Amino acid sequence: MLEDKNTHRTDLSQLGEFGLIDLLTRDFPLHNPSSLKGIGDDAAVIDFGEEKAVVSTDLLIEGVHFNLAYMPLKHLGYKAIMVNLSDICAMNALPTQVTVSLAVSNRFPVEALQELYEGIRLACDIYKVDLVGGDTTSSTRGLILSVTALGKAPLEKIVYRNGAKENDLIVVTGDLGAAYMGLQILERENEVFKVNPNLQPDLEPYQYLIERQLKPEARKDIISLLEALEVRPTSMMDISDGLSSELLHICKQSHVGCRLMEDKIPLDPTLINVCEEFALSSTMVALSGGEDYELLMTIAPADYDKIKGNPNLTVIGYITDESLGCNLITRANEAIPLKARGWNAF
Ligand code: ADP
Ligand code: MG
């Protein structure tokens, strides 16, 4: 059911490199005045005027970062853009342009790459970012996809990981752990499918979790919200590897400690149910499961009134002096040292 349903199969060699680039990039209207020159020349030209440029890049390898058995190509395209836009948002900047480079083997027909670009197009359209370039080449095996995102922000708005101060509040957007449990479900159903391809899994009860895995959203809306609330976080990053590992990054770079309250971590009710089904602790999943692409930030105590009661922003703890270390305060009111057990590329 998650397979791409293309009936036609056009061989890549039929189009050639330039025909392929033309076909894939034909339907990408430019949304931003800062995109002076997009696809079609030796380089794109971007004009950010007085603002600073923010750049981030990611490389995705088939079999390492994604599995096409349960990741439809359209979702892969969407997600590849999203994870990069998320990095730009994590700087408190607004994403404006992307470039997409791919290496493909002739195992992929033209139609498969069109599916991939349909996901890329959807992401660019919804987030109003411009595809302004890329590169296309062949690989001996599998698919390799690299996305670079550009964004802009006035210098005084840019937020780094190293600005957290003692007594700042730790704030997170959305809810955590769902993308990881979505992956557990997809992997479980894929194993069942390998044994009995006639069994159609009932994924309905897991829809939210699967969507969080296959179709994550960058929190561009939070950048606008922070601006409207007149809050500039003291530090910020996106949660790609899991809450504990990201919070440890902020604490290390800011030379501070933290107290993270277990009972404050925002969890979706579906996540709690499915963690029970898998006999996993939902706290552990929220701490160590990655790919939620929510934003983790610290804010000055003076800004608390501005964010209080906002359903998008949850206070989950506070920053302490470095000497106190980084601790999780459990529901039983015990302090246990936070460990980075997030996804590790190696
Ligand atoms: P060059 O030979 O200078 O690398 P190419 O012929 O590879 O240029 O690319 C032509 C144009 O198409 C450039 O603007 C390039 O950025 C763009 N482009 C190439 N491949 C892709 C792709 N996969 N997605 C988006 N744009 C691409
Ligand atoms: Mg090229």
3D structure, described in words:
This protein has ten helices and 13 strands. The protein is of the alpha+beta class and 346 residues long. The protein has two domains: 127 residues, PurM-like, N-terminal domain (60s Ribosomal Protein L30, Chain: A); 170 residues, Phosphoribosyl-aminoimidazole Synthetase, Chain A, domain 2. The strands form three sheets. Strands 8-10-7-11-9-12-13 form a seven-stranded mixed sheet, with helices on both faces. Strands 3-6-4-5 form a four-stranded mixed sheet. A two-stranded antiparallel ribbon has the order 1-2. The protein starts with 11 loop residues before the first helix and ends in a 9-residue tail after the last strand. The mean pLDDT is 94. The site of adenosine-5'-diphosphate has 14 residues, from helix 1, strand 4 and strand 5. Belongs to the thiamine-monophosphate kinase family. Keywords: ATP-binding, Kinase, Magnesium, Metal-binding, Nucleotide-binding, Thiamine biosynthesis, Transferase. It catalyses: thiamine phosphate + ATP = thiamine diphosphate + ADP. InterPro entries: PurM-like_C_dom (IPR010918), PurM-like_C_sf (IPR036676), PurM-like_N (IPR016188), PurM-like_N_sf (IPR036921), ThiL-like (IPR006283).
